[in-house]
Fold:
Amino acid sequence: MEGRARARAGAGAGEGSPNSEGGSHAARPAPTDPSPSPSPGGAFGAAARLLIIVDYFADPPVIGTSVLAYHWARALRRRGHAVDLLCAFEAWDEAWAPYYRSAGVGRPGVDVVRRGRLRRALSMLGGVPPALARVDARRLAAAVEAAGRRYDAVVVIGPALLRVAERLERSCRVLFVPTDAVSLVLERRTAPWPRPLERLRWRIEAAMWRRLEAQRLSRLGAVAFVAPEDARAAARRWPAERRRRLHVIPNGVDAEFFRPAAAAPRPAELVFTGNLWTYDSTVGARWFIERVLPRVADAVGAVRLRLVGRDPAPALREAAARDERIAIDADVPDLRPYLAAATAYVCPLISGAGVKNRLLEALAMGKAAVATTMCAAPLGLVDDRHLLVADAPEAFADAVIRLLREPETRERLGSAARTEVATRFSWDAAAGLVEAALASIE
Structure:
């Protein structure tokens, strides 16, 4: 998971579960929902009443968990279900109201009280990751049960809400969605830049999460990850008979919103998008800037790397100040003009897990891309059919140079990628898998 004091709304979807400070969430009574229309043949049945609880929410969504909640709520509503949505870690923001109204999503009358920093820090002494101590799961579950709304099922999104899922499972069907295998995310934090104490903390937390994934996730009725590799990592020590409770529900992309643009791209312009404050984005961008970009510049001459996204880390701002080939566009309202203007997209992430929304968005816009195996494999994309895949700095640079020099290759890959993503990664298909996972609970 990737830490930050507070997740804030902005352009682009990112990965990870940022940290948040203490406080309370005061939800108000839900507005009157439009009557849902029955869903033909839904896997969970028509017109179920569902509650989605997510760690963080924003409009537009910022991080992976909020992206799922935002789009799953809309898609499940379109499929005929009544849906309430509750953010566990953030106080209600009136800026969310237009989304709730347009999506026809309700708000449960629930107050959520989170625990303070000291309680979270002390949790590690008991072998519990601090993230799990952020919210009082017992009081939250009791508040949901006392709110007067009977839910057919609850979808709990975010690894830090494990205790909430365990509590609510006593009274109804629960689908727990950690999104990524947190142990895998922490195990992959091997870049040379972090300080030794950070490395030690990550190793300790990775061991805690491995134990939780093995002992507690396996006892839940249904658990879903966004990528097969994460599901395998989390369930590596599950008893064989419990693995039927494991589901993979890939991220989606709005292929109508992210669609190819008519305007011609700028020459020799590369773009990388996302939450630029996160560990994975910062490490990946630095790896590209320090080990790949010089090789590309030596081969093609003038080239520009544009970093587009929220809250660029100081290390990235410093790199841009030193190198005129690097431009930063922070906190933009719409990613699409920047994607459209790029000759090619680069996704040089060398840490993390799960499915990268940022790559889906670029491919949906028909952009030819170079990505590491870590980014391409969870999507099931094929090297030189949908994009170019490379892991070593030299190979990554060669792939970028090829795209800059070969417009026919860019056209071929961009077209194939657009078709693949639009076909396989719709949010409606993801909602169908949510229904199927809920229906599978015994």
User: Anything to note?
Assistant: The longest strand covers residues 173-179.
